[in-house]
Amino acid sequence: MAEVDHYQALPWEDVASSNLRRVAFVKTSENSSFLEEGKTDVGMLYVEFRDGRAYCYSEVNRETYEEMLEADSVGAYFAREVRPHHEFEKVERG
C-alpha cells in the first residue's frame, strides 16, 4: 500500500459521479517508461471513491485524465479506460 503524506495537498478535482468523489493528477514524466513511446505528459492518477477508499494509478497520460474529466460519465470512463490498463496501489492516508 502506498502511504501518501501529502494526500490532502494533492490537486483534487471534485467529479460528478455516483461512485467517484474526486480525482487528482500529478505529473511524473521524467521517470516514466512512456518516454520511449513519445508520451511525455504522464503521471499518477489518484482516485478517491465516495466510500473513502483511495487508489493511485501509475503511468496515466494527462490526455486520459482530461478526457475522463470531460466524459459524460466519469465513472464509466474510469472503469473502461483507466482501471483495466494501469497498475495501482491502495493509498493509506498518513
Please outline what is shown here:
With 94 residues, this protein is of the alpha+beta class. The chain is 19% helix and 37% strand. The protein has two helices and six strands.
Could you describe the 3D structure shown?
The chain is α+β, with helices and mostly antiparallel strands and 94 residues long. It has one domain. The chain has two helices and six strands, in the order βββββααβ. A six-stranded mixed β-sheet has the order 1-6-5-4-3-2. A hairpin with a 5-residue loop joins strand 2 and strand 3 (20-27). The longest helix is centred in the C-terminal third of the chain and has 9 residues, at 62-70. It starts with a strand and ends with a strand. The model has no long low-confidence stretch (mean pLDDT 87).
Characteristics:
94 residues; 6-stranded mixed beta sheet; alpha+beta; single chain; 37% strand; 19% helix
